[in-house]
Amino acid sequence: MNIWKISVKNFRYKPLYTFLGILILSVSIALLVGIQQLDTSFRKQMENSLGDIDMVVGAKGSPLQLVLASVLHIDNPTGNIPYEEAKKLLKNPMIEKGVPISYGDNYMGYRIVGTTPEFTALYNAILKEGKNPEKPMEVAIGATIADATGLGIGDTFQSSHGLAETGGHAHNDLLKVVGIYEPTHKVMDRLIITGLQTVWDVHDHESEPSYSKEGRVVEQEKHHHEEGEHHHNEEGHEHEHEEEHEHEGHEQETEHGHQEEHEKEITSMLISFRNPMALLTTPRTINENTNMQAALPKFELERLYQFTGVGVKTITWIAYAILVISCITIFISLYRMVRDRAFDLALMRSYGANTFQLIKMVAYEGLLISLIAFVIGVLLSQIGIYFIFEMITDQYKQKMPLELGFQELFKTAVLVLLMVLFSILLAINPIIKMNISKILSHEK
């Protein structure tokens, strides 16, 4: 007697119940596997993007916004801080190093970050080809940008003002690609790295015109108009005071040069500590005694996890509820099969089949349903995760690795198996209590 063949035939005996059980169970498995994978990938991506950054110092505002903007580069900055003031923090013996960053432009939605050579060391970034930026207007791009834009060594492009892909005017300066980094699966992959001087030069408002809403140059037009009017009204006196104006202009230019050098600003300073003890005192000292703000990325991201964790837990509990419903459906399907085919089962007993063989027949059917549902559920979860990751890539310009954790998958499989086995144990109760003589004589 081939119990497996009989189980397969019983599997097709009630196709509607079988299909319903597989459908509901596969949906619950897809939700469980998908939400676990999404949460794990999200946390790992956030933690990897921290690199060796222990503290971020920036303008006063929301500390979470400061971390999202300066570490993860997915939010707008809280403002700028004086570069000279930020460098004074590095005199603290508890601070090992500080890396300044300054940004405000983008290319096709990818942020252009002005910084120092120590920035790449925070993420262990290695050059795939080319070199690191050394001169103004030289840039090195992450692997994601190279793949998405097709930029290569020697190519040039114009940056756009602002952090949004659209809406900002293009700068006149051409940036040249001199390096491409290896994939790091961190925030480095979607950044355009250059020197601080490049960002300052591009945003030099004296050499760059301002634009109206229609895209017209308005500052230069105003300047030429005022210059013409001044020339018309003061033509008779211009020669008389020429030497005096030249002398005053030279003094103002010199004064402006010193002032500009002194007032250079950055977006934030990324700081690494020498020892964990600095976490207890340094941030509080900066927040209380300076006009700047210190934020701890790990602490702020943990708060973010608490906010997003509510949604994750809600979806997880919904998936558990659907899993319970699916197991109830499987139990009903198996129980109805045992009750409806009680005469056939009793006849099999009379021809030599024992109780254990009948139990195996029901168990095979239940396990077959769970196996098919598990495969379909995992496939559905991967399809859903793929589209979610594509949406994240489009919105945040960040590629997340599509990895299926074996540990999470194994836990879900064990949970589903236990629930199905429990349904099978309930369904085989009529077989254990079967009265063959009554069933064969049609007595109830």
Automatic annotation (TrEMBL):
Domain ABC3 transporter permease C-terminal as annotated: residue spans: 318-436
Cell compartment(s), UniProt: Cell membrane
Chain segments annotated as transmembrane: 16-35, 317-338, 367-389, 409-432
Region feature Disordered, mapped onto this chain: 206-265
Any Pfam family: FtsX
A Gene Ontology cellular-component term: plasma membrane
Mode of membrane association: Multi-pass membrane protein
Alphabetized UniProt keyword annotations: Cell membrane, Membrane, Transmembrane, Transmembrane helix
Residues in MacB-like periplasmic core domain copies: 18-199
Keyword Cell membrane belongs to the record: yes
Main subcellular location of this protein, as a coarse class: membrane
PANTHER family: ABC TRANSPORTER PERMEASE, ABC TRANSPORTER, MEMBRANE PROTEIN
Name this polypeptide is given: ABC transporter permease
Protein source organism: Flagellimonas marinaquae
